[in-house]
């Protein structure tokens, strides 16, 4: 199925500009997830694509068709919202059939399409029920069914799972993934949930104040965030950060010292050549720390344990104070109590460096796992 492109989009509300010269593309069959803090423009972007808002300037194409001057119904997009927006007086089958009946399909074509969608979505036994007689997950499936039957060129989802409880969300997330694998329809999906973004996306577009902060695969954005903002947006507990400076960097490697505890770290070479003394932020994910010193890891830091929280399969260990503080996510119980001192290690490739402007210092490409 064709993808979509937004080129050089400007959009202001009153005198407040939200998008300026904004570009985005969605490839054939690609699942693109938009994430970002509240107010960064995710919903507005979906609404622009769907035709519920008009851009001040720029072009929107779905496949090869320019659609930015077409009314919503002629764009070939289907949008599913957080609120399922089902008709309460209609049955499941009638709700799903509605857009097809509006489009003037014959009765037999509508019936065939509705039956097929209900089978695909596990709604075949519920076709005669009304929305009030369905669970949240079933209602959301009906909303998806209503979008699918139109065979749109592009799917838009605005936080479709956020009204569901955690277990149902996880189940529906897998159903989304399976559905996408079957339909391979280009999709733009907005969520606040980083696990949902990671699990579903071919590509994650992280937005910040109407701009794209990073556009990358889930793995790349997690392991090689382009900025501290991107690094901190993903991961729970959040990535550890320590102030530090470059001692010396050349083609053999990068020597970095942390500011307060004075750890000295030898890291792989950078693509850029930062001057000696340049201030940096050293960052490492809590699960990338390890008590094991093997040959793939270097000594990262030694700290006194402040607290240990055990969650069952894993625990979170809080270490050190103030700007020296670290969080370690360990498998099992870690066998520590407050007051113990522990030496932690990390693979050099898992230690990220950011400049004073918050941008990542350029590294060679990510090795494939
Ligand atoms: N119709 C409107 N009139 C005026 N301002 C608007 C309108 N729609 C959106 N905005 C503003 O545009 C910005 C982006 O809003 P948008 O809803 O796209 O953000 P979002 O990233 O989807 O946020 P959230 O995650 O909270 O849903 C916000 O500052 C919002 O106040």
UniProtKB/TrEMBL annotation:
It holds the Pfam family ABC_tran. Coiled coil: none annotated. InterPro entries: AAA+_ATPase, ABC_transporter-like_ATP-bd, ABC_transporter-like_CS, ABC_transpr_MalK-like, ABC_transpr_MalK/UgpC-like, Mo/tungstate-bd_C_term_dom, NA-bd_OB-fold, P-loop_NTPase. SMART domains: AAA. The keyword Magnesium does not apply. Residues 4-234 form the ABC transporter domain. Keywords: ATP-binding, Nucleotide-binding, Transport. GO terms for molecular function: ATP binding. Belongs to the ABC transporter superfamily. This is ABC transporter ATP-binding protein. It comes from Pelagerythrobacter marensis.
């Amino acid at each position: 199925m064709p993808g979509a492109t937004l080129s050089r989009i400007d959009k202001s509300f009153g005198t407040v500009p939200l998008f300026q010269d904004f570009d985005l593309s969605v490839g054939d069959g690609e699942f693109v997830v938009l994430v970002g803090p509240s107010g960064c423009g995710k919903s507005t972007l979906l609404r622009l694509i769907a035709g519920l808002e008009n851009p001040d300037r720029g072009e929107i194409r779905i496949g090869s068709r320019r659609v930015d001057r077409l009314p919503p119904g002629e764009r070939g997009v289907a949008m599913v919202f957080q609120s399922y927006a089902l008709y309460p007086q209609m049955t499941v089958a009638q709700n799903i059939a509605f857009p097809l009946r509006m489009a003037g399909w014959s009765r037999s074509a509508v019936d065939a399409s509705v039956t097929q969608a209900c089978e695909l979505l596990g709604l075949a036994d519920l076709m005669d029920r009304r929305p009030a007689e369905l669970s949240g997950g079933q209602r959301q499936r009906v909303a998806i069914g209503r979008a699918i039957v139109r065979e749109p060129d592009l799917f838009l989802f605005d936080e479709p799972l956020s009204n569901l409880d955690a277990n149902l969300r996880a189940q529906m997330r897998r159903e989304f993934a399976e559905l996408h694998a079957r339909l391979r329809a280009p999709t733009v999906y907005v969520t606040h949930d980083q696990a949902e973004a990671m699990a579903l996306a071919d590509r994650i577009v992280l937005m910040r104040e109407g701009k794209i902060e990073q556009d990358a695969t889930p793995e790349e954005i997690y392991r090689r965030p382009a900025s501290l903002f991107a690094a901190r947006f993903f991961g729970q507990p959040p990535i550890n950060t320590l102030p530090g400076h470059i001692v010396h960097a050349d083609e053999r490697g990068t020597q970095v010292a942390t500011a307060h505890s004075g750890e000295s770290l030898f890291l792989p070479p950078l693509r850029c050549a930062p001057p000696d003394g340049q201030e940096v932020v050293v960052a490492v994910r809590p699960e990338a720390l390890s008590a094991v010193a093997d040959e793939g890891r270097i000594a990262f830091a030694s700290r006194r344990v402040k607290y240990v929280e055990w969650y069952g399969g894993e625990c979170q260990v809080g270490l050190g104070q103030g700007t020296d503080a670290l969080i370690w996510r360990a498998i099992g119980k870690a066998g520590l109590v407050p007051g113990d001192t522990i030496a932690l290690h990390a693979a050099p490739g898992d230690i990220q460096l950011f400049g004073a402007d918050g941008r990542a210092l350029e590294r060679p490409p990510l090795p494939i796992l």
